[in-house]
Design brief:
Blueprint lengths: L4 E9 L6 H13 E8 L11 H11 L6 E5 L4 H7 L4 E6 L2 H18 L2 E6 L9 H12 L11 H12 L1
Parallel strand pairs: 1-2, 1-4, 2-3, 4-5
Length: about 170
């Protein structure tokens, strides 16, 4: 049996909507850390499709809510949320060099201003090109109607996208 670090990790993001890339990183974090908190935050640079409550509900349904994973939402700075939850590290997914540059900058701020470490997990080849922004764009242009996204998002998320776009 593989040993996990006896730490609590926060995997923070907007998850709007959750993708197979998110699920892969969450499952990998669960293998590494004693507890993973999936924290749905707000990105002020993005207009969300789903409310925070809708995203939390989707994630809770997608993840077997075992003792080692918790889904929550928060407002404000991630480093403040991590400290509030007495967590040890932030987990961030890296898809490409642009993500690395942006996340490295944020990780340095979190370390200097919040004394919070960041752990980077690199995406797999199968999930490297998946982004929630791309999923929303495909869905809004009619791509949720067919099977175009079945390899990008879980069936539950596709169902929620279809429902959201019918309104």
């Amino acid at each position: 049996m593989k040993r996990r670090c006896s730490t609590t990790a926060v995997f923070a993001g907007s998850f709007d909507p959750p993708t197979f890339g998110h699920i892969d990183l969450i499952e990998r974090s669960r293998k590494l850390f004693e507890k993973t908190i999936v924290a749905v935050g707000r990105n002020p640079e993005k207009a969300p499709m789903f409310t925070p409550d809708e995203r939390v509900e989707m994630l809770r349904e997608l993840l077997s809510d075992d003792d080692d994973v918790e889904v929550d939402s928060y407002e404000g700075l991630t480093m403040d949320y991590v400290r509030h939850r007495n967590a040890d590290v932030i987990v961030k997914g890296i898809r490409d060099t642009e993500d690395l540059r942006n996340e490295l900058r944020q990780a340095n701020v979190n370390m200097l201003a919040g004394d919070v470490e960041t752990i980077f997990l690199f995406t797999t080849d199968q999930t490297a090109l998946i982004s929630s922004t791309l999923i929303r764009q495909i869905a809004e242009m009619g791509g949720a109607a067919g099977d175009h996204m079945s390899r990008l998002v879980p069936p539950l998320v596709l169902k929620c996208l279809r429902k959201k776009l019918q309104k």
